[in-house]
Amino acid sequence: MKLTFNWLKDHLKTSLQEKNLLEQLTNIGLEVEKVENLTANNELFKIARIVKTKKHPNADRLKVCFVNVGEKDLKEVVCGATNAKEGLITIYAPPGAVIPKTNTKLVIAKIRGVISHGMLCSESELNLSDESDGIVELSKSKYQKKIGNNFFSKSESNLIDLSITPNRPDCLGVRGIARDLAASGFGKLKVKSERKIKSKAKQTINVKITREKGQGCTAFGSCLITNVKNTESPEWLKDKLISVGQKPISAIVDITNYVMLDMNRPLHAYDADKIEKSIIVRNSKSGEEFTALDNKNYRLESGMCVISDNKGVLGLGGIIGGIRSGTKFNTKNILLESAYFEPSSIRKTAKKLNLDTDAKFRFERGIDPLSIEEGLNKAALLIQEICGGEISNIDVQKIENFKTKNIKFDPNLFEKISGFKISSKEMLKILDGLGFKFKKEKKCFKLNVPSWRPDILQDVDIIEELVRISGYDKIKTIEPLKNRIKSTLTQSQKLFHFLQRSVASKGYMEAITWSFTDRNYNDYFKDKNSEIRIINPISSELDVLRNSIYSNLIMHMSKNLDRGFKDLSIFEIGPVFKGSNPGDQNIVVCGLSAGKKSRLSWIEKERYVDVFDAKRDVVQTLVEAGYSYEKFIIDSKTPNYYHPGKSGRLFLNSEKDNIAAYFGEIHPNILRKIDIKTETLVGFEIFLDNLKLPKKTLNNQKKNFITSDYQKSERDFAFVVNKNTKAQDLINAISSVDQNMISNIKIFDVYEGPNIPENQKSIAINITIQSYEKTLNDNDLEKLNKLIIETVENKTGAKIRS
Amino acid sequence: MSDLKKLKDEFFLKLKKQSNLSEINQIKSDLFGKNGIISSEFKKISSITESKRKQFASDLNIIKNELQDLINLKINEIENLKINEKLEKEKIDITLPERPFIRGKIHPVSQTIDEVSSIFSEIGFSVEEGPDVENEYNNFTALNTPDNHPARDMHDTFYLDKKKERLLRTHTSPVQIRTMMKGKPPFKIIAPGRTYRSDSDQTHSPMFHQVEGLHIDKNINMGHLKGCLNYFIKEFFEVDKIKMRFRPSHFPFTEPSAEVDIGFKIKDGKIIIGEGDQWLEILGCGMVHPNVLRNVKVDPSKFQGYAFGIGIDRLAMLKYGINDLRSFFDCDYRWLKHFGFDPLDVPTNYRGLSR
Fold it and tell me: What pTM was estimated for this model as a whole?
C-alpha cells in the first residue's frame, strides 16, 4: 500500500511530523517497508523528443537515438526499443537518475562500443505500469510544447510504502490508515463530506443478480452518468496519482482509481452504450470466453462470477473488466459499478485463471459491504465535476442483506492474555476510535464490529486491537523460570547429535544440502525406492525428493573437485524419503571421501582412500555411539550403487533384522557416467532409525570390572583357506573355542601367491591367551592350540600351514 | 699395607688411562674374578697372623671399595659417552611437518540449532520434531489458514500431488499441531527443522531452517512471551544488553501477533547487535489462536499460551557474519572450513555457547 503524508492529511488533522508518522505506523502494525524521496529524483526525468535515429554499428537490435531534451545539444542515447523512431515523444533519464523499478543509478556507459548518455524509459521502468514492451509514447498534441520539462510534477511528500497484512483490507485505503492513526492518538480523523447524488433520473439499465448456488456477488450498486466528456484529469488528481506511483490515464479511470486508493472501494466503469440491454450477474458456463482489459482472452470454467449482458460476458466480477465495454476518451455514457464480491469466490477464480489484479487483491481480502453507495456518490460527483454529464439515481440490487457482527467482550480477558492492565474507559476510547459501536452490559461490553473489519470475529481479535493501539511496548517482560520437567532431548535425538559430531571428528566436513535433488542423479542411488516427484519444482532438474543423500553429496563433491581440491571428506545427516506421505522418511548419516590419504607427505606413504577407511569410520562411529563391536555382523550384500566386490553392510547383531550401515566404494560405472574428477570415491550410510536404542544406559550396560594378573601368552597361526572364505568365519571359529581364555585375535597377514595353492589364501592370526584362574603351563597351552586348530579346520575347511 | 697400596696405585693408574669398556671389564675380572688379585688377597686373610689380620682385612676392604668405585665410575663415564655420541647422530630436523591430520567441521546451521536448543533447555523447553512432508491440514488448515485464505499466498508451497494435499512444510508450525494432537497440556516445546518454500533468489533459498516454539499452560500471557524471547536473544547473541522491539503483525495462527526486531548497527563492516538505531526483523510470534487450540482439542477457556517461529539461518548469519543465505547449502569446501565449527565445540551452558 503506497501513500503520502499529504494524502493522509485529507483525512487526518495532525501537527506531527513525518518522522513521528513513520514510527507510529510501525507501532500500530502498519509496517513501513520503505520511504522514497521521489521529488529530487523525479525532477531528473525529462520529456524528450527523438530527433534522429541510426542503426548501432555493432548491434543489429540496438539504435543510436539523438534526443532533444530541451537543451542546446542533442543527447546521444543507445536504445533497444523497437518503437524508438524519429519524432517520438518519450521520457529521458540522464546519467545520475535512479530508475524507479530497478533502483539502479544510471551512469554514462559504453554499449557495444557506443557511448550512451542516459536512457529512454519504458512505462514499467518508471513504475507507471507493467508495460515493458518499448519505451513510453507520449501524445504529440499534449507534450509537443513541453519538451525539456519535468515529466513528473512536484510532490512535497515522500512516498511511503506500507506492508499491509492480509487481515487488514480496511488499511488498503488511505482513510482506513488515517482512522487507525487517529485511534492511536496520532491526530484527529476528519469528518467525511457526505455529498450525495440528488437525482430524479432513473438508472435505466436493468441489473439482476441471479440466485444460484455459489453466486459470488451479493450486492451490485450502479448509477448511470450520461453525456460525459472524458478528458485528461485535472492537475490535482494527476499529481495525487503520480505521488503514489500511479499513471494517470483519463479522468474517468483516474477517478475510479482515486476512490479505490482513498477509501478501498473498487469501482468499475462500463461504456453504457456497449452494454446489450441489461446486466446479469451470474455464474459462468464452462467454455465461455471474453477478452479482458489486459488484452488477453480468457476461457472460463463453470461457476465463476461474471458480469454479463444479453450478448455474453462483460467481465469477471471484482477481478477484471472486459475490452468490449471498456471506457475510452470518446465514451459518452457510463455505467458505474460498485459491488460486493465474496472473497473466496474471487480467490478461487483468480487462482484458476492465474490472474492477479488490484481489484482482486482487495476483494479477496474483503471490501466494506456498506461502502457501495458512498463509493458511487463520491466517484459520480467527481466525474460530473470534471467531465460534466447527468447522474442517475443509485440502483442497488442485493440477494443478501449484510449484517454487522456483535461480540460480547469481557474486559477482564484483556489482562489475562496481554499481561497488563488498561481501564475500561481507555478500552472504549480505543474501540470508539476504530469505529466500534458499544453498549455496556453488566460487566461486559456489547460490541458492534464496523463493517470494514471482516477480520474481527471473536474476543481475542478485540484484545489484539486493544494491545495494538495501546502499544506493544506496554507488554511487561516476565523473566522465564529455569525449571525443567522433561528432558530436553529424546534418546534418538541424542543419538543424532552424537553421530553428527562423531563423524565430523573423523575429518568429515558437515554439509547441508537440499532435501530434493536432480532426478538423473537420484536415479543412480534410488535402489528399490520409487521416485517422489515435486509437481512445482524450482527448476525442472530439481524435481524429486531424494531417496539417498549420495546424489547431492556427489554433485557437491564433484563441484569441489572442480575447484581444485583433491582429498576431501564430506558428510550430511538428514532425511531421505521413501514415499510421499508424512513420515515416509528416515534419517541417514552419509559420508563420502575422495582422493588420497597422506598425499605428498615426506613421512607417510600416500595411498588412495579405500573401503577399509569407510569401514573404520562406520565401525568406530557405532562403537563410540555405544554399540558392541563383538556383536557386529558384516556381509557383502549391498545396493547396486556400490562396487559389488568392495562394499559391505553391517548389522548390530546376529539377528540381522535391521541394516545399520552400508559402506564401500561407489560403483565405477556411476563415476564414469557422472564424469567426476577423482581417482577414487568411497562412502558410507548409517541408518539412524535402524539403530536400536538400548533400554539401559551405557553405565548400566557395563559388566563388572575384572582383570587377570596371570601370565599372558601369544601364539601365531597361519591357516590356508579357500579364497572365498571370510576372515570373520575364522575369527568366529577361534573365539568359539574358549571365550574366557582367548582375549584377543588379530589378523596380521593375508597372503596369496607362490607357495600357496591356486584359489587359496593364507591368513595369519595372532591369538592372545590368558586365564582368569591360573598361570597356564605348556601342557594347557598345547591343548588349547590343538583345540583351536581342530575347530578352525572343522568349521571353515582351513588347513593349518606347517 | 705397602703391597696393597702398590697394588692399588698400579691399578688406579691403569684404570685412569683406560677408555675401552672391554679392557676395563678385563681389569675388573683380573681384580675381582674367581682367581682375581683382590679375591686372592682375601683368601690370604685366614693365614695372616692374628695381630695383623684385622688391619689387613680393613685395608683390603678399603682398597677393594676404592677400586670398585673407580671401575663403576669408569664404566658409567664410557657408557655416557657412548650414548651421547649416539644421540648426537640421531639429531633430526624437528621443523619438518608432523604426520598429516585432517579436521572435520560442524555446519553453522547445526551449531546454531545446538545453541538454540541449549538456551531453551535451560528454561524448560524440550525438543520435538515433525516430518518434512506434511499434509495440507497440518500445514495450513489446522493453523487457522483455511483454503482460499490470502495468507496462503505468503507461502510459496512445494506440492507433491495435483490435489495439493501433500506438500513440503512451509514452516515448522505443523509440529505444534502434531505435538498438541498427541499429548495433553501443558506443552513447552521447541521444534527446529528444515522448511521449504518455492522461492529462490539472493535472499531466499528453497530450503531453509526454522525453530518453532510453543508454550501452552493455564496462565501464559504476552508478558511470558516477551520474557522468553528477551532471554533467548540475550543468551543467543551473548550480549548483556539487547534492544528488542515488539511490533504488531498478523499470522493466522496467533492472535495477537507480533514481529520482533532487534536493534543493531554496522561498525567497520561488521554487524553489532544490541547497539545502534537500525532495526532488523528476526522472528514472528504471538498468542496461539483459540481456533488452533480448538482444532487440536485443547480448551481455549482453560489453556492459553504463546508460539514463535525463528529463522535459524538468519540467526546464524547475524551471529557469525555470513552474508549470503544460499552459501549455506552450496557445500563449498572453503566455506565449510571457514564458517564450520570444531566437533568438540558442543554448545553447553557451563562452557558457554561459543568460544
Answer: 0.85
